[in-house]
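Dear support,

We are seeing what looks like truncated structure output for some complexes. This example has three components. We would appreciate it if you could run it in full and send us the complete token output so we can diff it against ours.
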Amino acid sequence: MTTTTGPHPTRRLILQGAAGVALLGLGNLPFGAAPARAAANDKYPEEAFKLKNEADAIKALYGKTVEPSDKVKLDAPEIAENGGVVPISVTTTLDKVTSISFFVAENPNALAASYRIPDGTLPAVANRLKMAKTTNVTAIVEADGKLYSATKEVKVTVGGCGG
Amino acid sequence: MASSIRVRSTSNGDITEVQALIQHPMDTGLVKDSKGEVIPAHFIQQLKFECNGKDVFVADWGTAVSKDPYVKFSFKGAKKGDDLKISWTDNKGGSDTTTAKIA
Amino acid sequence: MKARSALLLGSLSATLVAFALTSPRVIAADKVDPVADAKAFQNFYFQKFPDVKHEDFVNGPYSMNEDMKRQWQEKEEFPPYEFALDAGKEMFATPFKNGKTYADCFPNGGIGIRQNYPYFDTKEGKVVTLELALNRCREANGEAPYSYVKDEMASLTAYMAFTSRGKPMDIKIPDDPRALAAFENGKRYFYTRRGQMNFSCASCHVQSPGERIRAEILAPALGILNAMPIYRSEWSGMGTTSRRFVTCNSQTRAVPLEPQADEYRDVEYFLSYVANGLPISGPGARP
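Here is the complete output from our reference environment:
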């Protein structure tokens, strides 16, 4: 710890100010006006991960409405052998995919993972997620600036959050 | 120290398939240890794959990603012998990086 | 099938009691005949599950349920025991302080020999498991023994099992009355009811493989040790044969034995012998 004052206090103030603005911005964002996930920079979407509810998390991450699509193929087990490790994958025939995200509706925080798909990367991801209890899982594919989803129920008998 | 990152990347003509497994507790912050004390959240937030100077895949993760996380994806434009750089950072400022040759 | 999958512990035990009255044992116990026992044991499973390929029995619960098998196959693409396997390989190659290595303690330098464990040691007159042999190797070289249930021990056995993958289990019963007695004792332990719930190992793993008990699908006893050690998601880590035995005893509120107690060694001998011919598949990944 140093006791010099110097620029530190000012810098902190500025940072706080910026954060405040960002939060306000999120809250007031009208539907459709938010930057698409892909257009956003490299920043980790901290706020979206903190939200409990799926609709709120989708709004914070994308700020747009979602339509279900049979072009999004979500693969998830019917009964998870262990809620701590549930294999979930998605593929899609949609073009111009820029991101794929996974939401677990009944988890304490709905957003589980969000993947950026740059040009040249195939629109398909497999990962393993935790589920606290029986829940819907939704994959959202962002393609050409629009959002498409697929949802499946996964039954969980051994939960993934109780350890 | 052995790397926390295991990668398999294989080129199959124009498409490179990548699978990675990372050793990390991915603690949710909701679980108590045997003494009844909460284990603080400790999880990877961002995982990046770069090839030939360009991001080919970026994962943003929350606490719902399983312990020792696994991910699989494929991309175009690389060839056998190219370097794939993998790096992650977690919510406590921890990080690791490794480079794998595409086979 | 759907209705049965909701089976809980209580109703399961009721089913088992009914079952026990009609066909108590797979194996006739008149006289100690391990060859006949192994044959009867294998035939029981092959007939009960005609659609399961013989070599698939070694995959525990995954041989019994398609939805679970798919989740397992996905896991196997990059299995959770990978880190333990790497650690075990490194440990195996690292010399002790005296310059010797594990390889010096085992036939064929310890590579590709897992299918011969446990074996009956005619000098000692007892069953020797791989875990026991590893700790004896450490102690003979001035190193402290490892815990028998997880961590280093599971990493070492994971690596040794990996070098034996696909090799048929090949347990010998030497011409020694004590070896036959050990086999018989293991068999007795396996079929004896114990604990508050009055279950034997066979109640679950012979009479009910494929059934759900709470959330889990029961593994068949045939080939039940071929995948050891295992990474269990429920444990968030690796466990040895001893760890699994202790867990099964505790789950039925029976008093678990010390890892590597004589009875555990004997039951391991019995279960391994009756799996002769089935491939080693360890290390395994389990729910």
